[in-house]
Amino acid sequence: MNFIEGLRNKAKKNTKKIVLPEGMEERNLRAADYILEHQIANIILLGNKETIVRNAQKFSLNHLDKAEIIDPDNFPLFNDYVDLLLEIRGKKISKREDAENLVRNPLYLATLLVKTKKADGEVAGALNTTGDVLRPAFQIVKTRPGISVVSGAFFMVFDNKEIGHNGIITFADCAVLPDPTAKELAEIAVASAHTTKDIAGFEPKIALLSFSTKGSGKHEMVDKVIEATQLAKDMAPEFQIDGELQADAAIVPAIGLQKAPNSPIAGHANVLIFPTLEVGNISYKLVQRLAGAEAVGPVLQGLAAPINDLSRGCSVDDIINMIAITSLQATGMK
């Protein structure tokens, strides 16, 4: 069984309800049909019911009758959700009419469904930009306790099973925060540990990376990683965390033993935390293209509930996989 099959099978064991705000779009409908057929998750589709039923017939999708359909323009809890949004946003929304318009927006309604636990998670982005997907998430769901930043992790899956944990290494942050402070970098490390444990299911060994190993280089960027490492250890003593480590010292046992002989994880890291987004994004793309690794993600982490963003060029399989991942995040957060 490969990594993706494993994720889907794990999601089946504790079925969650995932809302798809782009519920009338073909890729979302095909993904929802597959998810429901294989009982990977329960699905809420947002959109006009007649259009969804018509598209299901058009595309020969036979399992969408198992989905819950909510029409943002016509549903019983509309006024309750307007009241909730006004309560959450306070003075940020000046008129009730403005709140009503936002609740009719499927991205806002989906996030409110997650906030009220009517849905366990949300997957969107096939039609909308990352900014549009994340804006209501930041405003309504916000970040989880002890975490002030949202970041993006990739699971890098290698054919060589001796790399990381059985061929899997988590890379972060590769998607969101350009230049984290030491505190933010520590939060990314801890969030990545939870992401790894909740989704991939193995015990994280987290290395905070630098161009220096244990004082071999002197620079303010090295100092940031050293500080972040200690903060992360203090935040989450239950996890194995170390830094600052060069990449080879983190993942190659012989080099780890030579450069950091007293490190509990040097040479055996399976979660790599990059000092900046620039480094993380470049690294995952190079590893993907030059080493032939499969990049699964980005998985958004740090939010108080699982909300994940798709690429607008995503495939049906990408949506299916992200629904499974979001379900596993929801299970972990419970």
Written description of the protein model:
- By secondary structure, the protein is α/β, with parallel strands linked by helices.
- It has helices spanning 3-12, 26-37, 49-58, 78-89, 96-104, 106-115, 130-141, 182-200, 220-235, 247-251, 253-259, 277-290, 316-333, and strands spanning 17-20, 42-46, 68-70, 121-124, 151-157, 168-172, 205-209, 240-245, 271-273, 294-301, 307-309.
- It folds into two domains: 3-142 and 306-333, Rossmann fold (3-Layer(aba) Sandwich); 151-296, Isocitrate/Isopropylmalate dehydrogenase-like (Rossmann fold), CATH 3.40.50.
- 46% of the residues lie in helices and 16% in strands.
- The radius of gyration is 21 Å and the shape is globular.
CATH topology of the largest domain: Rossmann fold
* Estimated share of beta-strand residues: 15-25%
Given helix and strand content, the structural type is alpha/beta
Number of beta-strand segments: 11
What is the count of helical runs? Answer: 13
Give the proportion of residues in helices: 40-55%
The whole-angstrom Rg is: 21 Å
**What's the number of structural domains?**
2
Strand order of the largest sheet: 8-7-9-6-5-10
Q: Mean pLDDT, nearest integer?
A: 95
The stretches of 5 or more residues where confidence is low (pLDDT under 50) are none
Largest sheet geometry: 6 strands, mixed
What CATH architecture of the largest domain would you give? Answer: 3-Layer(aba) Sandwich
CATH C-level class of the largest domain: Alpha Beta
Order of helices and strands: HEHEHEHHHEHEEHEHEHHEHEEH
The CA-CA distance between the termini, in Å, is 26 Å
Shape: globular
